[in-house]
Amino acid sequence: MADSxxxxxxxxxxxxxxxxxxxxxxxxxxxxxxxxxxxxxxxLNCQTLFGREAQDLIGFSAVEFLAPEAMHDIRTRLQxxxxxxxxxxxxxxxxxxxxxxxxxxVHVSGRSFVLEIEQHDATSRRDFVSYVRPMIERLRQSASxxxxxxxxxxxxxxxxxxxxxxxxxxxxxxxxx
Length: 177
Known about the structure:
Elements: E1 28-33, E2 39-42, H1 46-50, H2 54-57, H3 68-79, E3 88-93, E4 102-109, E5 112-119, H4 128-140, H5 145-160
Antiparallel strand pairs: 1-2, 1-5, 3-4, 4-5
Helix pairs in contact: 4-5
């Protein structure tokens, strides 16, 4: 029987639309809502998190699904987003009010606010500043943009544990290199 898995070709990575909402890692969930908290996009696997089919969440208010304390924390983070490229993170958030803890990234995509949600890993270290501060210092010492990007990708790979981390520069037409 032939292997039907596609082969990885790193020469086409620039064609991957990683900056457009639509995909999320299998261990996480994505929820997007408008400025009035109406859900406008969810990842298909949100049924496992919210107990309702993904398409059944669209059009409802996020306040119907998220705990009041979590909503308060998310609203606070949305107010301090510096720019459209800024991501704020919340750790150990009781998102649903049921005692389960999640780590959440909050950012803006177009006219929507996006939550990228992962189950909190209690075994991971939580003092991220102690990781990032020395990395930033090393990045400041980079002699060129190319060396800065290579160093940033290497450090991010070490921080996240991902197999591959790449730095993209997106062109005006959406392509990247």
